Amino acid sequence: MALDGKTAIVTGSGRGLGLAYARELARQGAAVVVNDVDSAVAEEAVAVIKADGGRAVAVVAPVGSTETAKALVAAAVENFGGLDILVTNAGVLRDKSLLKMTDEDFDLVINVHLRGTFTCVREAYAYFKENNVAGRIITIGSPTGQRGNFGQTNYAAAKAGIVGMVRTWALEMKKAGVTANAVIPVAATAMTKTVPYFAAAVEAEERGEAMPDFFRKELGFGTAEDVAGLIAFLASEDAAGITGQAIGVGGDRLQLWSHPEAVASEYRDGGWTYQDLAAAFPFAGSLQGVGEKFPPLPEELQPQTADSK
């Protein structure tokens, strides 16, 4: 198995995407430290991994603090003898439009996603350097962090910040042989299950059927298990040369997101005054769009209303 003898921490792995990552890492041979804020959920996840034939222990704590980061690394070392892989998946949502979003809504999401990623990566990297481990850091981004989404100021800021940190860490960790990458998953989650646009895909999954090709191919939208293979690959020796990247995955689609680059440049002798720009802004026809643009649903995949049944 590709990860035989390795140990991984997966934050926020009691259910959903995080559990899918933890199970796949265990299937590939890694011992896993499961993390969740709910002890019953965490212990159930451990039981599932053990039933699969894997090894796992649970740390019940909210990520964000240095204390939790230290506890996670300590659990890996004390139970399995070391640490090789960190997947920072833990997250929360507090979606509200800007004027309705409170300080508490903003701070909670930033603390769990952004600060939680920072503290856990810092602690894991310290262990890697001290013990000469060519470890793997895998963070979780989002299309919202890449393009924005209505009502998600806090979440967009956190997810964009995570990708920015990954690019920095790839530079700082290169000499130690540690890789750092961000995965941008697109999958059925508790959040997407409430969106009517994805109803046909979610219903198919709940029936144990394959999602329609429109979702898996056109949208790159699939199950949590569709994302897990990339997590395990980036954790392996086969991905030793991949670092500083944002890689999207969902359904049948794999994507490499670009780093931000200038899309157009114009020059003017003496620089650009207000009057010059007001007279003829040179990029009026090249402005970038924001947010996700979904294609229309095929008629047969549109949600059924009471009148249409």
TrEMBL record:
This is SDR family oxidoreductase. It comes from Arthrobacter pullicola. The keyword Secreted does not apply. Residues 6-191 form the Ketoreductase domain. Belongs to the short-chain dehydrogenases/reductases (SDR) family. It holds the Pfam family adh_short_C2. InterPro entries: KR_dom (IPR057326), NAD(P)-bd_dom_sf (IPR036291), Peroxisomal_Beta-Oxidation (IPR051687), Sc_DH/Rdtase_CS (IPR020904), SDR_fam (IPR002347). The keyword Transcription does not apply.
